[in-house]
## 1
Amino acid sequence: MSAVLEIEGLRKTYKSRRRGVRNALDGFDMRVEAGQVHGFLGPNGSGKTTTLRTLLGLIQPDGGRMAVLGHEVPGALPTVAGQVGAIVESPQFFPHFSARDTLSLLAGAGDVPAVRVDEVLELVGLRDRAAERVKTYSLGMKQRLAVASALLKNPKLLILDEPANGLDPGGIREMRTLMRTLAESGMTVVLSSHILGEIQLICDEVTIISLGRRVAAGPVEQVLAQHSHGGVRVRLDAAEDLAAAADLLGRAGVAVTRHPDHLMLAGVDKPATVSRLLAEQHLYVSELAPVSVDLESVFLEITATAPVPGQHRQVDQSATIGEPGRTAGTTGGWGA
Ligand SMILES: Nc1ncnc2c1ncn2[C@@H]1O[C@H](COP(=O)(O)OP(=O)(O)OP(=O)(O)O)[C@@H](O)[C@H]1O
């Protein structure tokens, strides 16, 4: 398969006299094959928008290389721009224009045949409301209009930042069907989303970013399989002993993620070892169950962003590369 998008060793440092130096992208890699729906995931502040803005030539990178549809960018952006549709930040529309006026204006400016306006209105489900002013639209309808505008050029690569934002469950399902239909027609779709259940349902592959670096990538099933090995849920007779148990198991080399009423362990070969270790310290197990993980658990584990009772995780606290499975609260911090 050929890569529609290739990013290698991308670096972006923001410097400010007041806030110092921030490595927003710290050698980030990403590869997206043709015709797939690819999920781009990461905690808040991990570098997703910076990556997408850099890719679209809106930000100058400090290092690394990027190629879109086989052309090195940003140099070849004028060549490939007509084949890339993107919504990276909520686009602003004229509030007094209708959806059809808005799309007709954009189509005219981009040499897109007028007939395409009705096609995209149909695709995103706005056909029956196309004559109404944008200012009367709900958030979800504006989101549909944004997707319609990105589809106008019938791009080969469609990049969407949070396309399900503001959509109701029915709208999310329709968006999911639309993404799959587009991919089946040969379009490659890259989408960031915080709705991990959706990503798991829609995407062929995912890239997970944390602190500006790739921490996991590949087909969803493969990423799940890599991280579901030895997954075990542990409950104790006394829930107040969970902190002590997490500490003990962590020191024994088990990857532990804390939840309010249980622990999730990863990489456990023999669950009996866990109950023995805990019992030796008078911590008694009430449940020890092997579990198959979902994308949300994998995301929380490898980015170390699972909530910990009594702790308020700060946005820059997520996992560093090569250290999956660290417990939440791991300090990331900004390297110089
Ligand atoms: N113009 C800027 N100046 C300084 N720092 C910036 C700038 N833009 C982004 N950053 C920082 O770079 C880091 C990455 O930000 P980015 O917006 O790429 O994250 P993100 O993954 O898109 O987050 P979110 O999911 O919250 O949208 C953050 O710490 C952010 O504060």
Note: Residues 321-336 have pLDDT under 50 and may be disordered.
## 2
Amino acid sequence: MSIGWSLVIPVKTLVAAKSRLAAATGRHRTAFAVAVAGDTVAAALACPPVARVIVVTSDPAAAGPLAALGADVVHDPDRGLNTALRTGAAEAVRVAPGDAVGALQADLPALRPAELAVALEAAGEFDQAFVPDALDIGTTFYGVRAGMPFKPRFGGESRAKHLAGGAKELCLPGIESVRRDVDTPDDLRAAIELGLGRHTAAVVAELWPPS
Ligand SMILES: Nc1nc2c(ncn2[C@@H]2O[C@H](COP(=O)(O)OP(=O)(O)OP(=O)(O)O)[C@@H](O)[C@H]2O)c(=O)[nH]1
Ligand SMILES: C=C(OP(=O)(O)O)C(=O)O
């Protein structure tokens, strides 16, 4: 039987978000950050093993639209990314102690529910597991089985940190959209190739109207 998952999605304060895309997105930068998080949340909620999505943010301008999509929102204590994730995970365990708990980055605008389901099914085979990002440097997903300690090590070269922490690296075919985080203009081009979700596609159409 497949297991249920609570997914924690961290969204940083919008004034600081997507700084590496500031030049590319201009005055649309915060709308872009909310749209990318919106597509990530919507795809996660559409993934059958996902029982709930818990967004951790201290920014009301992100919390409102993401709650409207169906996410639960937990306030970020603003002590860094891994503290935000642990805060969300504690809420997940409180509401659903029998479910697995995962952290999913908020910058996956091409995320496909079926590909996320493949990754979650594989992750459920291990006490702790992770998905490396498209560049094999960072991490897009880290998760633990119910009852296992949740020890996210995101930030910088987090693929190596998760490996060192004993998490199983999930090297799976067919999960490109789970690995496709968007931090730079090159990342955005690659995500456009995969196919953006509707929120991000709308902002990109504002940025670069079809000629
Ligand atoms: N809640 C919360 N989320 C965070 C925090 N720091 C980073 N994040 C989130 O973690 C993910 C990766 O964040 P970063 O790559 O550091 O930031 P970014 O806004 O995506 O991009 P840059 O500004 O270019 O670094 C994104 O989903 C962020 O929203 C934090 O302190 N709190
Ligand atoms: C924080 C991370 O991601 P990013 O590449 O978005 O900074 C990470 O991969 O651990």
Note: The pocket of phosphoenolpyruvate (ligand 2) is lined by residues 105, 107, 133, 138-139, 154-155, 158, 181, 183 (CB under 6 Å).
